[in-house]
Design goal:
There is one protein chain. With about 120 residues, the protein is an all-alpha fold. The chain is about 65% helix and about 0% strand. Helix 3 runs antiparallel to helix 4, helix 3 packs parallel to helix 5 and helix 4 runs parallel beside helix 6. It starts with a helix and ends in an 8-residue tail after the last helix.
């Protein structure tokens, strides 16, 4: 499913698969749970919704990722969010208010993570 999202595909079946993945990764009591896996699934869902022509759904899907505290914004999560931004830039939604707001928020998200200390 992630490959489909990265290739720019989006349809009802892929949305259902992506929603199922988000649900599957949403239980923090699961022994194999990881916030990064959940964030990746949410970004994939956002991409698929965007490719399906649903910018509002894409914004809703990535919202929990953008709300992560800076301490949880690891490189993998930032890269996943930036993929959504890149897809948004080539989407018809890029000029819509939702698209512009989402793009700005993702840009701020990627620059507001903590740097590693020097030394």
């Amino acid at each position: 499913m992630e490959a489909e999202a990265l290739l720019g595909h989006g349809n009802a079946d892929l949305i259902a698969q992506a929603e199922e993945a988000v649900t599957g990764f949403s239980d923090p009591s699961s022994p194999n749970w990881a916030f990064g896996d959940l964030a990746g699934a949410q970004c994939d869902l956002s991409l698929i919704r965007l490719h399906s022509g649903d910018p509002d759904g894409a914004a809703a899907a990535i919202r929990p990722v953008l709300d992560l505290p800076a301490s949880h914004r690891n490189n993998g999560i930032v890269v996943s969010a930036m993929r959504v931004r890149s897809a948004l830039m080539s989407s018809p939604a890029r000029s819509a208010v939702t698209g512009k707001d989402l793009r700005a928020e993702i840009e701020a998200f990627s620059t507001s993570r903590p740097a590693l200390p020097r030394g």
